[in-house]
Amino acid sequence: MMIAAGDIRKGTTIELDGKPYSVLEFSHIKMGRGSAQVRMKLRDIRSGATIEHTVQSGSKFEKAQVERREMEYLYPDDELFYFMNTETYDQIPVNSEKVGEAVRFLRENTKCNVVLYGEEVIAIELPNVVTLTVKQTDPGHKGDTAQGALKPATLDTGTVVNVPLFINEGDDIRVNTDSGEYVERA
């Protein structure tokens, strides 16, 4: 399926020189005398490299056939992470390079999207907010009530986030997976 440069939006996946790219940013540029152009910032889905590319507004690209399948994270094993298709119960191993930063918020039985290009796993997408358990944090002391006061807390995945003083060990909290920040108590 072809897509015109003028129809490209953030998040669109296209093929350029035989490689799949995700559009991070785009802008339409109208030149004084020449034809309009589209300037794009693209991320190579396989390698993660970022490039800038400018084309004429009438250019067409092949839309990359990227599929997202909801799967459940099962367990880690050395450099591999195992995910299960919840419909077919098929398990697939994904190497740590493809899991990337998602490992910071990945807890057993977490549902997430496995992004496939053909049958090749290219990325893991977590929900915007996940619920994790506080494994270690210092107790908040009475009188430490300065508004907005935060303290570090280690979560069950090993990630450290700043939380309000009233959060204690064993509490479940919701964390934004994009920013890595505390959202609320679960």
- Structural class designation: mainly beta
Strand order, main sheet: write it out: 1-6-2-3-4-5
Largest sheet: 6 strands, antiparallel
CATH topology of the largest domain, by name, is SH3 type barrels
The overall pLDDT, averaged over residues, is 87
- What is the name of the CATH class of the largest domain? Mainly Beta
Number of domains: 3
CATH architecture identity of the largest domain: Roll
Give the helices and strands, then pairings.
Blueprint: E1 2-4, E2 13-16, E3 19-29, E4 37-44, E5 50-56, E6 60-63, E7 66-77, E8 80-85, E9 91-95, H1 96-99, E10 111-117, E11 120-125, E12 129-137, E13 150-155, E14 160-164, E15 172-176, E16 182-185
Antiparallel strand pairs: 1-6, 2-3, 2-6, 3-4, 4-5, 7-8, 7-10, 8-9, 10-11, 12-13, 12-15, 13-14, 15-16
Explained architecture:
There is one protein chain. A six-stranded antiparallel beta sheet has the order 1-6-2-3-4-5, with no helix packed on it. The chain is mainly β and 186 residues long. A hairpin with a 5-residue loop joins strand 8 and strand 9. The model has no long low-confidence stretch (mean pLDDT 87).
